[in-house]
Amino acid sequence: MKLAVIPGDGIGTEVTAEAVKVLDAVLPGIEKTEFDFGAERYLRTNDLLTDADVAALREHDAILLGAIGDPRKVAPGVLERGLLLPLRFALDHHVNLRPSRLYPGERSPLAEPGEIDFVVVREGTEGLYTGNGGAIRVGTPHEVATETSMNTRFGVERVVRDAFERAAARRNKLTLVHKTNVLVNGGGLWQRTVTEVSRDYPGVEVDYCHIDAAMIYLVDNPSRFDVIVTDNLFGDIITDLAGAVTGGIGTAASGNIDASGTNPSMFEPVHGSAPDIAGQQLADPTAAILSAVLLLRHLGHEAEAVRVEDAVESFLSNRGEDEMSTPEIGDAIVAAL
Ligand SMILES: NC(=O)C1=CN([C@@H]2O[C@H](COP(=O)(O)OP(=O)(O)OC[C@H]3O[C@@H](n4cnc5c(N)ncnc54)[C@H](O)[C@@H]3O)[C@@H](O)[C@H]2O)C=CC1
Ligand SMILES: CC(C)CC(=O)C(=O)O
Ligand SMILES: [Mg+2]
Predict the structure, then answer these.
(1) Which residues belong to any copy of the Isopropylmalate dehydrogenase-like domain (predicted)?
(2) Which candidate in 42, 92, 129, 162 is catalytic?
(3) What string of DSSP letters covers 17-65?
């Protein structure tokens, strides 16, 4: 396997080291190339994401990423809009896959969490994140700022089909989350697409929630969800809350997938670079390690994926109350393999 590794910024470097440690333990011989994308390189060279970077990444089977963005060093938005999102767009990562599961032994802040096991299929290349919009008269009392959500039939349909496939392979329930009562243009396209594609999946029950109500259900009754399909912004927000109710953001994994298989897919924790705890080895690397599980599974290494997932589960069930450092958690998971 040829693996591109982008540790990135803040705790991205700390948690990625642990995910690599686990990958090396379970699948010896992985050929790794490290890419130094992020704040430091940007400050040194002014490079965000170059054509040569994208070409080099395309030479790999998959990408493991930590986190991009560091507001302590670079203004908010520069690296996110100039590097992280262009990476996802250039490699056509249209399926942003974010599973949420409350593993046995994990602590949820919910009093009665019940069984939580759902997958968010977030559209990854469109919506409000494409950079459509602008600002005029900036800094004056007459400033006007716009961001426009871009939704194409092509983009919506391919991710909706992917979500139906996943629902058909799971518990046969798909929930569209949107805000069709207000966002009538994009929402209308999403709703019609789900209704039309559902005809090809008669065994899948289709549900709909407005985004605001979905936040209630995620806390009150998360078991109602199996597969959630939604746009780029809503999916971003839902999955931080989903992480928080399933043992913490430090355990939430994700995959940015080009389902056509043309480009390498990229696996990363749901969380960001956490500047508040960076540099102290306090971050939980479980999300990065579970992202490596998604990577292994995506590349067909199912046995290795199961081994790591079992090791994580065993670690979570047996961990005590003591605080553990980032490498201590990585080592404990390697030991549990
Ligand atoms: N995919 C990516 O590369 C992402 C990048 N970001 C960027 O990261 C930077 C920081 O963003 P924030 O809004 O602070 O979100 P964040 O996810 O980095 O942190 C939010 C909170 O969660 C905690 N946290 C995050 N990961 C943790 C872990 N593994 N273990 C324990 N605690 C953890 C942090 O300490 C913080 O209190 C920003 O520049 C943002 O744009 C944010 C989200 C995703
Ligand atoms: C910084 C954002 C563009 C990324 C993010 O928060 C996410 O993908 O979850
Ligand atoms: Mg996010």
Answers:
(1) 2-333
(2) 129
(3) HHHHHHHHHHSTT-EEEE---SHHHHHHH--SS-HHHHHHHTTSSEEEE
pLDDT (0 to 100) of residue 319: 84
pLDDT of 336 reads 97
Mutating to test ligand 1, I would choose from 251, 271, 328 the residue with most ligand atoms within 8 A of its C-beta, which is 271
Average pLDDT, 10 consecutive residues per value, the chain (337 residues): 98 98 98 98 98 98 98 97 98 98 89 93 98 97 98 98 98 98 98 98 98 97 97 98 94 97 98 98 98 98 98 91 94 97
Burial of 254 (0-12, 13-18, 19+ CB in 10 A): buried
Pick the CATH number of 1-96+252-337 from 3.40.50.300, 3.40.718.10, 3.40.50.360, 3.40.50.12780: 3.40.718.10
